[in-house]
Amino acid sequence: MGPHPAVAAIRLAVRRVLKDVLNEVPADAPAPPLVLVACSGGADSMALASALAFEAPRAGVRAGAVTVDHGLQAGSDARAREVTERLTALGLDPAEAVAVAVGRAGGPEAAARAARYAALDDAAERHRACAVLLGHTRDDQAETVLLGLARGSGIRSLSGMAAVSGSLTGAPGAAQRYRRPFLAVDRQTTRKACLVQSLPVWDDPHNADPAFTRSRVRHEALPVLEKTLGRGIVEALARTARLSRDDADALDDWARQAQRAATRPDGTLEIAALHDLPPAVRRRVLRRAAIAAGAPAGSLFARHIEETDRLITAWRGQRPLNLPGRVEARRQGGRLVLEQAGQ
């Protein structure tokens, strides 16, 4: 008799990712590659840890785990040790807890996320892991799409989380470090998989705290949408993420080609080469050029790009624009110049 359907589903998802990881490892590698799982002790990441522990030996991969103690709740250090003991009992080695200091930049959710990924990057580099698995599910993807829609940031913000992504800290050699095997698996399946395997799970109270935006989306916004539009809304939002990512990737590739064609030897942009591009492509070119000139990506908003775009499409002798990062955008003859003020 085979495993419970929920257990079979999580193992299959991990098996597919391990196959992809192995295809990227050199055939003459001196030792079996190490794959880490980031585990908070919640149902999603415990299910992922159990599936990795089962599938890794069968794939010829070493499996380890990291749990991050954010220090935001009383007793978090003891809970991190408990999670580490559970991971060790599953057969994961190394299995370690890492304590981090969470700052304030960008708000509590963003600060915790930045600290967590920095810790995971450090662990991956110390242990020379080839990949880190994350337990984000289809439900998490749906929430991310709704949050992106609320920000009004364009199609890229609707594309949600990528199945494969690089380091947020810019760590070298980590372009494809993070893998999300469960983006097509719903949260109910991961919880059921833990239940039937008798895996203890910890429910983070922050996930139910209305002070956090994602918690409100999870417990208030999505249930209202399901009640109004039907229970297929989570799957529909996740599908929107996949389709949006394909479109955004295509537009970004077009923009890279257009930027190369429009860039003059002195680094300025040729107005004539930009003017007749579709707005979605032209504005991507301008954003890329502004970031290359020194504008911080996180501070560069749609209004900045729209104002810069008017230097091309609605030129009436405007004064130079001041963009974040002390970057100045100005039209000079038939060229668009983006550079830091004072250069």
Question: Topology of this protein?
Answer:
Layout: H1 5-24, E1 34-38, H2 43-59, E2 62-69, H3 76-89, E3 95-99, H4 108-127, E4 131-133, H5 138-151, H6 155-158, E5 164-165, E6 178-179, H7 187-196, H8 213-229, H9 233-262, E7 269-270, H10 271-275, H11 279-293, H12 302-313, E8 321-323, E9 327-332, E10 335-340
Parallel strand pairs: 1-2, 1-4, 2-3, 4-6
Antiparallel strand pairs: 5-6, 7-10, 8-9, 9-10
Helix pairs in contact: 1-2, 1-7, 2-7, 5-8, 5-9, 9-11, 11-12
Kindly summarize this structure in a few lines.
This protein has 343 residues and is an alpha/beta fold.
Question: Which labels suit this protein?
Answer:
2 domains; TilS/TtcA_N; 343 residues; 10 strands; ATP-binding; Rossmann fold; six-stranded mixed beta sheet; Uridine Diphospho-n-acetylenolpyruvylglucosamine Reductase, domain 3; alpha/beta
Please give a structural write-up.
The protein is α/β, with parallel strands linked by helices and 343 residues long. It folds into two domains: 5-233, Rossmann fold, CATH 3.40.50; 263-340, Uridine Diphospho-n-acetylenolpyruvylglucosamine Reductase, domain 3. Helices cover 52% and strands 12% of the residues. A six-stranded mixed β-sheet has the order 3-2-1-4-6-5, with helices on both faces. Strands 7-10-9-8 form a four-stranded antiparallel β-sheet. α3 links the parallel β2 and β3 (95-99). α2 (43-59) crosses α7 (187-196). The longest helix has 30 residues, at 233-262. The relative contact order is 0.10.
